[in-house]
C-alpha cells in the first residue's frame, strides 16, 4: 500500500506498513485463508462496532459494560496523546492527568455554565489542552533533556491542589455536571460518541506522520543532531508534538467528563498520570494498534473490572505471608501487575503489545502469520536526553 | 490585606520551612547524586524511603526487633531496594534511551506503592516511633521536635560526607564513569561496581529521609513519594540538578515557599503553596535554566 501526499509530488511509502506482499504471488492466501480472514474481520467489526451498543449480541450487554468500553476508547485517545510525546518526540509528560482533568472541567464548564453544545465543549477542551502543553513546552525546552517531565509533574500537582479547587470552575467537591450530547444519552449510544473521537484521533495521528512536521519528528527521533544539520527546527517541531499531545489529551478529558455525567477532581491524581505512561509504554511506543490495545487493557484493569469479569479473584485469593494472609482486593491488581508488566516490556519486549499483535495484523491484511522480532525502529537509541 | 502578616507568623513559617525543607533536601541530594553520575531522573528515590519505613515498622511491631536493630533493618531494606533497582532495571536498560529509564524508575515507584497498598490495605495507617524521644526545642514560638533537629544535623553530615566522597578516588571514579563509561572501563575502572555504589548511596539517602520524615508520624503506602518526591525534584532542578549544595539550597527554598503559601494572607488562593512552588520553578527555568548553583565545574 502506498500513499500519495497531495502536498508533495513524489510518491512515498506508507511508514506504518511493510513492503507490499502481493508482489510475490505465491504468498497469496488460499480461498479458505480468505474466508478465515473474512470471518475474523467480521468478528472484529462486531466486537468494536456492534457488541458495545448491545446490537446483534446473543446475550444482553449490561449498560455498565458499555460504559467501561467508552472509557477504554477514551483511554486509547489519551494513550495516543502520550504516544506522540514519548514515541515521536522522545519526551514524557507526568502531568497528563492535569491536561485530561482540565479538559474535563473545561468541557463541563462550557456546556453547563455557558450552555453550549457538547461538541463545542469537547473541542474547546482540546484547544485548552493544546495551549497548556505548548506553554509548558516553551518553558521546558530552554534546556535539553527531559525537563518537560519535571515541569509537567509540578504542574500536575499545582493543578490538583489549586486549579481543581477553584469553586466556580470545578464546582468544588460536589463536582460539575456534564450532560451527554443529544442523541447519545444512553451508555450504549455514548460509546459511539467516544469511538468517533478515537477515530478522529487515529486519523489525525496517521495523517500527521505524513506531513512535513510528522516527517521532521521521525527524523528528530532518529538523531536530533543529524536532523538539525538538515535544517530541521528541533525545538519548533518538538513544540508541535507537545501541542498535538495536549490537543488529544484535552479531547480525551472532555469525552471522559460527559461519559461520567459529572466531573469531580479526585480521580485526576499523580497515580493516574503514571497509569497513562504505563499503558502507552506497555502497549508499544510508535505502534498505534499496540497503544490502543495497551490503553484498553489498563482501562479494563481499573477498579478491578477485568479481574472480576474474568473471575480471577479466586485464583489470586488470599496470599499467605509472614504477616498473615491478606486478601488481594481486585482494585489493587492494576497497581501491582501494571508496573510489573511495564518492567517486563521495557527489559524483554521493547515492542510491547504492539509487537505481539503484529503477526495478527499481518495475517488480517492477507499476509502470512509470522512471529517477528522487535521492530528495528523501536530499539533505536534516542540521543535527545 | 498584605500587611496582615505579622512578624511572628513570618518567623514561624521560616522555621517550619527550614524544618520541612531539610527532608526535601535529603531527597534532592539522592536525585542529584544519581543524575550526576548517570543522567537519570530517578522517580523511585522517595520509594526507597517508604520501603525503609515499612521495613523498620514491620520488624519492630510484628517481629519485635529491638528499636535500633529495626531502624537499621529498615535502612538495609531501603538500600536493598535501591541495589535491586540498579541490578534488575537500570543495568539492563543502561544503553537505552533516557526516556525509557525515566519511565522505568516511575514504574518501580508505582510497583512499590501498589505492593504496599495491596499488602497493607488502602487506609491502614501505620506508626513508627521517632528516632529520638527528646522533645526538642522551641524556636520562635514553634516546637521543633528532636527528630526534626536530628534531620537538620544529619543533612549537614550528608552534604559534608558527599562532598568529601566526590573528592576521594571513589568519587572521582564515579565522575569519570559518568563522563565516559567506555573510556573509564578501558583504564581499569569497574563501571558496574561504580554504578552499584552510586545507587547504594542513593538508597541510604532515600531510606534515611524516609525514616527521618515518617518516624513519629502516621504513614500510608506511598507516603514519602506523595510528601517529598515532587518537592525534592523541584528542589533539585532549582538548585541545578548537578550541584550538591544547590540541592540543599533548593530544598530549603521549597520548604519555605510552601510554608509561606500557608500564611493566612493567602487563604483566598486555593493551593497557594503549590502555585508558588510552580511559579518559582517556571521563573528559575526562564531566567536561569541551569539552576541557581548549577552549570559549574564539579566540586
Short synopsis of the structure:
Chain A is an all-alpha fold. Chain A is built from 17 helices and 4 strands. In chain A, helix 2 runs antiparallel to helix 10, helix 2 packs across helix 12 and helix 4 crosses helix 5.
Account of the protein in words:
The complex is a heterodimer of chains A (385) and B (299). Helices cover 63% and strands 3% of the residues of chain A. Chain A has 385 residues and is mainly α. In chain A, the strands form two sheets. Chain A has a two-stranded antiparallel sheet with strand order 1-2. A two-stranded antiparallel sheet of chain A has the order 3-4. In chain A, α2 (63-89) packs parallel to α7, α2 crosses α12 and α11 (270-283) packs across α12. The radius of gyration of chain A is 22 Å and the shape is globular. In chain B, α1 runs antiparallel to α10, α2 packs antiparallel against α9 and α3 packs across α8 (191-214). Chain B has eleven helices and four strands, in the order ααααβββααααβααα. In chain B, the strands form two sheets. A two-stranded antiparallel sheet of chain B has the order 1-4. A two-stranded antiparallel sheet of chain B has the order 2-3. Chain B is mostly helical and 299 residues long. At the A-B interface, α5, α11 and α15 of A face α4, α9 and α11 of B.
Amino acid at each position: 500500500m502506498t500513499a500519495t501526499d497531495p502536498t508533495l509530488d513524489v510518491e512515498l511509502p506508507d511508514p506504518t506498513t511493510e513492503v507490499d506482499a502481493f508482489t510475490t504471488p505465491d504468498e497469496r492466501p488460499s480461498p479458505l485463508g480468505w474466508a478465515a480472514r473474512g470471518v475474523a474481520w467480521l468478528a472484529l467489526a462486531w466486537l468494536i462496532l456492534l457488541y458495545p451498543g448491545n446490537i446483534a449480541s446473543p446475550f444482553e450487554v449490561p449498560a455498565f459494560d458499555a460504559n467501561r468500553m467508552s472509557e477504554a476508547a477514551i483511554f486509547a485517545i489519551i494513550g495516543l496523546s502520550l504516544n506522540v510525546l514519548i514515541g515521536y518526540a522522545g519526551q514524557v509528560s507526568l502531568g497528563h492527568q492535569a491536561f485530561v482533568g482540565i479538559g474535563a472541567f473545561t468541557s463541563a464548564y462550557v456546556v453547563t455554565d455557558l450552555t453550549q453544545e457538547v461538541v463545542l465543549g469537547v473541542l474547546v477542551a482540546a484547544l485548552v489542552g493544546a495551549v497548556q502543553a505548548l506553554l509548558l513546552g516553551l518553558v521546558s525546552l530552554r534546556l535539553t533533556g527531559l525537563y518537560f517531565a519535571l515541569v509537567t509533574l509540578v504542574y500536575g500537582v499545582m493543578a490538583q491542589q489549586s486549579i481543581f479547587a477553584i469553586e466556580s470552575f470545578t464546582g468544588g467537591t460536589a463536582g460539575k455536571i456534564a450532560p451527554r450530547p443529544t442523541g447519545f444519552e444512553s451508555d450504549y449510544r455514548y460509546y459511539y460518541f467516544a469511538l468517533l473521537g478515537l477515530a478522529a484521533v487515529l486519523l489525525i495521528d496517521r495523517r500527521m506522520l505524513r506531513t512535513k512536521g510528522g516527517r521532521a519528528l521521525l527524523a528528530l527521533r532518529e538523531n536530533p543532531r543529524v536532523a538539525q544539520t538538515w535544517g530541521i527546527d528541533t525545538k519548533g517541531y518538538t513544540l508541535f508534538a507537545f501541542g498535538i499531545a495536549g490537543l488529544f489529551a484535552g479531547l480525551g478529558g472532555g469525552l471522559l467528563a460527559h461519559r461520567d455525567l459529572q466531573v469531580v477532581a479526585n480521580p485526576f491524581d499523580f497515580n493516574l498520570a503514571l497509569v497513562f505512561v504505563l499503558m502507552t509504554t506497555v502497549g508499544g511506543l510508535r505502534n498505534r494498534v499496540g497503544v490502543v490495545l495497551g490503553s484498553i487493557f489498563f482501562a479494563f484493569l481499573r477498579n478491578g473490572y477485568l479481574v472480576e469479569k474474568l473471575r480471577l479473584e479466586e485464583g489470586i485469593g488470599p496470599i499467605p505471608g509472614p504477616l498473615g494472609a491478606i486478601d488481594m482486593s481486585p482494585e489493587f491488581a492494576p497497581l501491582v501487575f501494571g508496573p510489573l508488566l511495564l518492567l517486563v516490556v521495557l527489559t524483554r519486549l521493547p515492542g510491547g503489545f504492539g509487537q505481539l499483535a503484529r503477526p495478527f495484523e499481518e495475517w488480517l491484511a492477507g499476509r502470512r502469520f509470522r512471529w517477528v522480532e522487535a521492530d528495528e525502529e523501536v530499539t533505536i537509541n534516542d540521543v535527545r536526553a | 490585606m498584605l500587611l496582615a502578616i505579622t512578624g511572628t507568623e513570618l518567623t514561624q513559617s521560616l522555621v517550619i520551612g527550614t524544618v520541612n525543607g531539610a527532608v526535601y533536601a535529603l531527597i534532592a541530594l539522592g536525585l542529584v547524586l544519581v543524575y550526576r553520575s548517570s543522567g537519570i531522573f530517578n522517580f523511585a528515590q522517595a520509594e526507597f524511603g517508604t520501603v525503609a519505613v515499612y521495613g523498620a515498622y514491620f520488624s519492630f511491631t510484628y517481629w519485635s526487633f529491638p528499636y535500633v536493630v529495626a531502624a537499621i533493618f529498615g535502612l538495609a531494606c531501603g538500600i536493598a531496594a535501591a541495589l535491586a533497582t540498579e541490578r534488575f532495571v537500570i543495568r539492563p536498560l543502561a544503553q537505552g534511551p533516557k526516556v525509557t529509564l525515566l519511565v522505568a524508575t516511575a514504574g518501580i515507584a508505582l510497583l512499590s506503592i501498589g505492593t504496599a497498598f495491596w499488602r497493607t490495605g488502602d487506609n491502614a495507617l501505620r506508626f513508627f516511633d521517632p528516632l529520638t524521644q527528646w522533645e526538642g526545642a522551641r524556636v520562635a514560638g514553634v516546637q521543633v521536635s528532636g527528630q526534626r533537629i536530628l534531620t537538620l544535623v544529619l543533612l549537614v553530615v550528608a552534604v559534608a560526607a558527599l562532598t568529601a566522597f566526590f573528592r576521594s578516588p571513589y568519587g572521582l571514579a564515579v565522575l569519570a564513569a559518568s563522563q565516559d563509561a567506555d573510556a573509564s572501563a578501558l583504564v581499569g575502572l569497574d563501571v558496574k561496581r561504580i554504578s552499584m555504589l552510586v545507587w547504594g548511596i542513593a538508597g541510604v539517602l532515600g531510606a534515611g529521609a524516609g525514616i527521618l520524615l515518617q518516624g513519629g508520624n502516621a504513614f500510608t503506602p506511598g507516603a514519602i513519594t506523595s510528601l517529598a518526591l515532587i518537592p525534592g525534584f523541584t528542589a533539585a532542578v532549582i538548585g541545578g540538578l548537578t550541584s550538591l549544595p544547590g540541592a540543599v539550597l533548593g530544598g530549603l527554598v521549597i520548604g519555605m515557599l510552601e510554608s509561606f503559601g500557608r500564611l493566612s494572607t493567602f487563604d483566598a488562593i486555593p493551593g497557594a503553596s503549590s502555585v508558588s512552588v510552580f511559579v518559582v520553578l517556571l521563573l528559575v527555568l526562564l531566567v536561569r535554566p541551569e539552576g541557581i548553583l548549577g552549570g559549574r565545574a564539579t566540586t
